[in-house]
Amino acid sequence: MNKQAEVIVIGGGVIGTSVAYYAAKAGKRVVLLDRGDIAAGTSGACDGFIIMQSKNPGPHLDLAMQSAALYRNLTDELEYDIEYMSCGGMIVAESEKQAQLLQGLIAKQKQAGLQVELLPIAQARRSEPLLAADLWGAAYCANDAQVNPIRLAQGFAQAARRLGAQIRPGVEVQALLVENGRVCGVKTGQGELRADYIVNATGVWAPALLSPFGIDLPIKPRRGQILVTEPLPPMLNHVLLCACYLIAKYHPEELDPTDRQHRLGVGLAVEQTAHGSLLVGSTREFAGFDRKTTLAGIEAVAQHARRILPALAKVNIIRTFAGLRPHTPDGLPILGPVAGLPGLIMAAGHEGDGIALAPITGQKVAEYLK
Amino acid sequence: MATGQTFDIVVVGAGPAGLAAAIEAAKRGARTLVVDENNKPGGQLFKQIHKFFGSHEHRAGVRGYDIGRQLLDEAAKCGVEVWLDAVVHGLFDSRLAVLHAGRQVTVQAGRIILATGASENAVAFPGSTLPGVMGAGAIQTMINVHRVLPGKRFVMLGSGNVGLIVCYQLMQAGAEVLAVVEAMPSIGGYGVHAAKIRRAGVPILVGTTISRVVGQGKVEAVVLATLGPDGRIDPQSERTLAADTVGLAVGLTPLTELAWMAGCEFFFSPKLGGHLPLHDENMLTSLPYLYVAGDITGVEEASTAMEEGRLAGIAAAESLGLVEAAAAATDKAAVRQRIDVLRSGPFGEGRRLAKAEILQQQALRSGQGGESWKA
Amino acid sequence: MEGVKLTGALSADEQASVFPPNERAERGPVAVIECVQQIPCNPCEKACPFGAIEVGPDITNLPRLDLDKCRGCGLCLSKCPGLAIFLVDASKSATEALVMFPYEYLPLPAPDEIVDGVDRTGRFVAKARVVKVDTGAQREGTTIVTLAVPKQTMHDVRSMRLVAPGEVFLCRCCEVSETEVRQAVREGAKTVAAVKMRTRAGMGLCQGRTCRRLISRVIAEETGQSPADILPPTSRAPVRTLSLEALAGGDDNE
Lengths: 370, 375, 254
Ligand SMILES: Cc1cc2nc3c(=O)[nH]c(=O)nc-3n(C[C@H](O)[C@H](O)[C@H](O)COP(=O)(O)OP(=O)(O)OC[C@H]3O[C@@H](n4cnc5c(N)ncnc54)[C@H](O)[C@@H]3O)c2cc1C
Ligand SMILES: Cc1cc2nc3c(=O)[nH]c(=O)nc-3n(C[C@H](O)[C@H](O)[C@H](O)COP(=O)(O)OP(=O)(O)OC[C@H]3O[C@@H](n4cnc5c(N)ncnc54)[C@H](O)[C@@H]3O)c2cc1C
Ligand code: SF4
Ligand code: SF4
Description:
The complex is a heterotrimer of chains A (370), B (375) and C (254). In chain A, helix 1 packs parallel to helix 6 (149-162), helix 1 runs parallel beside helix 11 (354-368) and helix 2 (59-71) crosses helix 11 (354-368). Chain A contains eleven helices and 19 strands. In chain A, 31% of the residues lie in helices and 26% in strands. Chain B has nine helices and 19 strands. Chain B binds chain C through residues 1-4, 37, 87-92, 95, 97, 99, 102-106, 119, 121-129, 212, 214, 235-236, 238, 253, 256-258, 260-261, 266, 268, 270, 274-275, and chain C through 116, 123-124, 164-170, 172, 175, 178, 209-211, 213-214, 226-228, 231-232, 234-240, 242-243, 246-252, 254. One iron/sulfur cluster (SF4) is lined by residues 31, 47-48, 50, 52-53, 65, 70-76, 87 of chain C.
């Protein structure tokens, strides 16, 4: 059977579409398949933080900073409004203890070349007046930004299409085809397709394609629940996280399982979208592949948001949704070839950083497709 | 510390279906709660100032809002607890998230009966988003409940009973109705309702539609056009009416968000208004704790809604072991017989067949699927 | 009740008095000066570089057109303050004629767009194709539209109406038009949820209660799917809006 393409990308989230774009830009003939539609998975059910100061110095922060650099002219490059806003970000500390935790991280980040400063609450409130007056303060980083993940995936997909890629929503990959020990194509509901390289960018669903080969990819869905408010006039100047988010992320052992907020891993994440709605998140829970929101979950998120941003008390919630972060044990994505399965390239497992890391992931993965 | 409360049966919606369900359940000893988002009970009934059709048993000849009041009295006598100004905003298995008078409360239910009614359909044409284009139901609430006329000169799109009745009530409230416009080749509602407004000189234009609405920031004129045999607008036939308000009475869709959230099985019935929860002859859905009754199971009438409510109320109480199977069977048989009468005749026939199809489909799926459907 | 004095539109007799003979129109473009009342006015006379229009010293005279001198250049059309001059041309095809008229409304049609050709009373006459939209500087803000119309209607069509006089909005909360929804479906969005992702339709205050059926219908039309298979997007709490504060007050702990 003939090859239909040089590269098949499985998954139309921010990661898959980014890989398709950078591969097409490098001159490859690309086919992108998604069983649903562009951004039908986690990338259509998440926040859009491009946040630097939440990353641990090391490979994580390096990747994020390279990605941030790519973001700066991505709107022009894709000729598509991805609603990128270079707004700066804050990580709120409720207490002295949390501030110390931030201080430690900031010291290391500064060494790595990221400018972050810790502001006492009075100073933080000058640029973000919605913050509660009785908080300790906030860490501020001017390099943080935001984007609309759905439009990002669509922008990558359209730009890839202009470069000759085929974008095929509604095609499910049922299995990888292997010949002479090499992954050479995919079996789909609509027939077989062949290519030199197959990229697995299916996020939390990535392990399923590898388990038939006895490979157990350590990616687990970690649910996040988000509240959406009515459209509001501009009222938030930054993307906001709180230190609980970092504790839930890096120090889960400090959490008290009898406390609802801790048990659900609630950490604040608030942004205002280009359309005025606030996205108020979120939880971090292991609940299998269930994308439902729970009453306890949305209540706990609301409670925490009211604590940090009391001015939002009267704001109306119009919807809730949940997305599944592709969690990995070390918090780092799984990128590149897979031992024992030549021809297959992984690009999944970005946990809570897939939006921030999408451009650099696409660029790096495209380099493996030689 | 917990604000949560527990009831044997929680009914969502205090319309005719919900109230009737609650009455039957409470009569059989169930601790019953009815929740409705409005501050008056009765659902659609509380804005119906006209005398109802139906059989004498269903309080025909009584005005809609009086039926609502009578049902409420009866519910109070049976010990039903009624929460008004209470929205069920989420369903999480058998727990309901209720916003009651501004406070968030969790209610745990043994059985839930969804009687949420139906919502009005929209239509889109150029100008359909101008202020002054509104649902007939919204117009009815404004004139009959809030006593304000939303305009002076109306055009109504849709000649079903709702469109006809709302036109009549508009004229009673002192408005002018320039025309009723109906895309179908004949009038959808009862002839007697149509005759009432024809006597007042209102033209009912069948085979006609609104081709567009024009105006600067609000409705100033409505352009009508005749539909050709291909269903397309004949541009030669366009004519303009100087109306300032357009009512849309183009059907209702069962209000099913909570049922979708619960995750029960659905069935599509064009005749009954679209997707609706699949249910058996006891009004039980594919989830063992979830019942449905009234317009949510297919858009019909207050009389059938009440009977379906009774059925659901009896069956839910029975499933909790509060009544003997034999006694329940007798009661349910009597209700089903009355429902059959209501669904007879040329206007009822289509609904009877559509409802029968739901039961057939349910039997088919439960035969294949198995374990669900056993209360 | 007939005639420009009573109805604002020329009567059949008035029309007959200004129409050029058909043979003339068959030879090529020619002006039709539908100016039948003796008003004090004469810019048309000056406008014609070929001296084809004569009003004379008494400016209340009716303009007279010399059919042989008129070359159909159309310059007089945008000079006539009464917008009373038109151009017809039956020479281009056996079945179609061109009609040129001044058009001072926005939005303007686009070349090749199909519009409704309407008569002197604004009534629909025939579907017409836009051939040219001339907004050139010499037109001084009076755009001249050229339509191709069925030949037998050449003396009836005197203006046009855009077929879609405005956008049809399916989602009023987020102002998403029917065109955008169709476009999204053609690009591969086959479900209400996918249309929502691409267009934001249904993301507003009503959460799709108003627009979802309208969107389902467009999907059904575009894809040929049965409406039974087009499901609403995932239903999530809250089905009615509630304040953050109220939600925060709950203490569910499942
Ligand atoms: C609540 C929440 C908030 C978040 N906030 C942020 C944030 O602020 N900043 C940030 O950087 N990151 C954030 N993230 C993380 C980010 O959303 C994810 O890391 C990212 O979206 C993952 O993208 P992906 O392309 O890998 O996966 P997905 O978007 O899930 O894409 C995978 C695609 O693969 C398709 N697919 C799966 N299996 C198959 C198959 N067999 N055949 C064909 N197609 C298949 C699916 O349909 C899906 O579209 C958040 C996540 C959550 C849940
Ligand atoms: C103009 C008009 C004229 C009519 N005339 C007649 C007639 O002459 N004879 C006749 O038999 N029938 C008539 N009907 C039909 C009749 O009113 C309906 O069929 C009947 O009311 C349906 O009853 P129901 O209980 O299913 O729903 P409804 O009466 O609609 O009641 C549902 C209730 O549930 C509430 N609700 C919905 N969701 C929630 C939620 N999440 N939380 C809390 N509360 C919720 C709603 O606000 C509403 O109060 C007429 C209807 C209209 C519109
Ligand atoms: S069309 Fe040209 S030539 Fe004919 S009358 Fe007008 S200006 Fe003169
Ligand atoms: S300019 Fe127009 S209105 Fe004036 S005389 Fe000439 S044709 Fe008549």
